[in-house]
Amino acid sequence: xxxxxxxxxxxxxxxxxxxxxxxxxxxxxxxxxxxxxxxxxxxxxxxxxxxxxxxxxxxxxxxxxxxxxxxxxxxxxxxxxxxxxxxxxxxxxxxxxxxxxxxxxxxxxxxxxxxxxxxxxxxxxxxxxxxxxxxxxxxxxxxxxxxxxxxxxxxxxxxxxxxxxxxxxxxxxxxxxxxxxxxxxxxxx
Length: 189
Ligand code: GLN
What we know:
It is a single chain. The chain is 26% helix and 33% strand. It is an alpha/beta fold. It has one domain: Class I glutamine amidotransferase (GATase) domain (Rossmann fold). The strands form three sheets. Strands 2-1-3-4-12-11-10 form a seven-stranded mixed beta sheet. It has a three-stranded mixed beta sheet with strand order 5-6-9. Strands 7-8 form a two-stranded antiparallel sheet. Bound molecules: glutamine.
């Protein structure tokens, strides 16, 4: 059986772990480079991207993870996790993985209302997903390799590039496992 790692340094990793367990997956909280070396896929949770980035560097996880991504491991980043995957972060030099050809603007949905929910039509599911946005990043640009799988108000909020999946919102905070199931189908078995 595959093991799906959930980066367990900061943020709402417990919610992702619970969702994966509910879907019958073997999930493990990841905090060491050794774990990065043996998991089959990784979820990077929401939280505070600057903090998670610093901790990743401090725990020596950044380079091993970049290598696994280059080798084709599937990674799903939600909110702060998406920011960490993004190659370009407007106005920020913060530590990142930078593997996805997207540009994001942090907290851009959160200037007036810091959090909200909306129905998001998603290309691979029939009924819309409930999007929970919490001081969420706006995706301001996507490269040619990036497919847009879900949009809100004309902007991408769920995107995929090869084995990388990223959302501005938090599917782990709902009862709806369909986006996690889509990610699990991306994991090599
Ligand atoms: N605002 C956070 C950041 O910039 C992300 C918020 C979240 O993950 N819900 O890192």
